Amino acid sequence: MIDVFRRSLESGQPYDVELRQRGADGVYRWFHVQGLPVRDADGRILRWCVLQTDIDQRKRSESALTRAFEEIAHSEAELRTIIDAIPQLIVALGADGRFLSANQAVLNYTGLTKEEVRTESFRDVFHPEDSERLRDVRALAISRKVPFEYERRVRRRDGQYRWFLIQYNPLLGQRGEVIRWYATGTDIDDRKRAEDVLRSNEQSLRLIIDGIPGFVSTANAAGEIELLSRQVLEYFGKTAEELKDWAVSDAHHPDDLPRVIEAYTRAIETGEPLDVETRNRRADGVYRWFHVRGRPQRDADGRIVRWYNLVTDIDDRKRAEQALRQSEHELRQIINSVPGMITVADSPGGQEYANKRFLDFTGRTLEEMSGLNGLKMIHPDEQEMVTNEWLRCSALGQPLELDHRLRRFDGAYRWVHVRVDPLLDDRGRIVRWYGLLTDIDDQRSAEEALRQSERHLKLVVETIPALVARTTTDGAPDYVNRRVVNFLGREAGQLGVGVVHPDDRDVFSQRWHHAVTTGEAWEQTFRVRRADGEYRWVYQRNEPLLDRDGRVVCWYSVGFDITDSKEMEEMLRSTRRKLSAAMQIATVAELSASIAHEINQPLASVVTNAHACQTWLSHDPPNLERAQATLDRIIRDGHSAAEVVRRIRALFKEAAPIKAPLDINQIVAEVLRVLSDELRDNNIIAETELEADLPMIEADQVQIQQTLINLVHNAIEAMSGVTDRAKSLVLSSRRLGEELLIQVRDRGVGIKDPALVFEPFFTTKESGMGMGLSICRSIIEAHGGRIWAAANQDAGTTFSFTLLLTSAALT
To answer: Which residues partner with 480 through β-bridges?
Structure first.
């Protein structure tokens, strides 16, 4: 028997043996002993489950059967009687496994007859699942001619299935052939149920262990790992065999491993519980903090037989503790950085804590400020007041709030605002006092300065030579300066629209209502009745004061007595009417000079060409061809002069220009031809920078041509006195968006103020009238364009003007 146990323990295979055991009464009985190993997830044996079944009665029956066969083998009838008397299921089968007969125990159990045993009905007593499962096994076993056994469920006559151990033994002939099979059935249902309960308990225990929110493990007395819960394997991502060598693996953080090994070794040697914190490496390489606790299990003699270990994840707690320490550090920094002095006192008022700002302010240590020593830092004039107020608030449990002077580290006293609040327990008793001291010395100085400034401002408002008032959001006066009271003879509460002249009241009320509704500033001139009953003209300006949300808080008004100004304006208007006639006479003279200026150019050309014609005709023979050309120019200049007169008249009558499609580059070329002699006589080099394929414009040809002639003529005159550089003139044209830009650039003496040259009668020439550029501006603006002048960077001036493109050109 001992050899069977030893082989099973060495091989890990189940054992099944029959033996006799002595009971408490000293009597030996036969037992069927079965040992079943219980393994972990890695196949290692955790424990052995043993089931012992009392088979003494069966053994006695088998002995009796054996003796009966030996004693009365000659009597088959007696043998049948004995077999039927045996309380065990016995069946005889043919060599092919077909059922032949059964003892009475089979008939009594199944409720079948002897005839039914020989039919297929006997197979129905076996559970269908077992028949399907064992069909091939039984057929194979019968073909091997050796004993075999298996377990299956057999239906009792009441319909209930019970587990039986079916054991087959062959009866062999002389030649070794199977003559018959004999099978016995032993009821093992109670044993099977016990095994199921055992497995269920084992599974429940495993589920409990696996469900524990921590890592569970067991170790033997030497500390060698025996069992690991599922969570351990999943966390580390290692097998149980790999984790047994945890001391040389990467399961623990390298910085923690020596400390853990030391604690584990000490616990094994001393038997004291294991308690250590360490970082364990997760399967993904992340380390988390764990709390490892180990407790020993001892036998009756106090010897350690096993260690039970529980490892709890405390990473979140450790992080929370770290965060708490960080928060405490930050809180201390905040308290020390708060722009105020913080103190903590016990319930009687003895100081326990002060932040760095308070200690730096007083220049004392916390020990020097302990107890009631802080009262000595208060100014002597306020010590009694502070003490009395403290005693009153302490007795009533009320907050203390007051201002007093506190001595600084340099001996100077500064005003501080003190606020001390009590901390109460659940029963309303004072546990501690928390105080905040704020340095308000600068604030008090600023408040005093503000009060002085306010007094000065009020004095200014009262003495300012104006009527100053403040009204509410709905227009009701709530403040007026003394000048208003003296002027109207009424205080602020007595004022209203009644002081306004009856003819002005409606307009005044409408303007006020509009201002109150919209919040817009407004101004108005109206008449008010002075204290002596005389109505005086007043100019008033009203501005709203707005809050951060743009809502009107109040209205401020400033008024001035402008009666004298109104009378002066009336006298001025009278004077202006008298001067108007004189100005008209002067204007006629100026316009005449303008007309003479504009006509002078074409007439000068007529005279010049007439002289040239005389010269061509005086030749011998006369140069008629050149004379004819000169006469054509005389006729052209004559028409031009007439057209200038007509256009100027139309301009004075504000008549619209006569527009037609024009090519600006062609006009530029024509202007240069007209002034070619003048340019040549003044040694001026004329150049053009004309953009090709410019679109047409709608314009009055004569007016645009006259504008260009004026600009070029002015450029010629501007370069007349230049001797230190070449005289050059550049006319350019280009498109600029929806406009054409035309420029005349000279290298003359330049102008000081380009903005004034277009004003009427402004001139830089000794004999000029100042009307040429003014007329040019009128012409360009009448065409919807604009004209301006700008000084060049090197020398001279550039005159530019724009003309709108036609809609056809834009498309």
So the answer is: 469
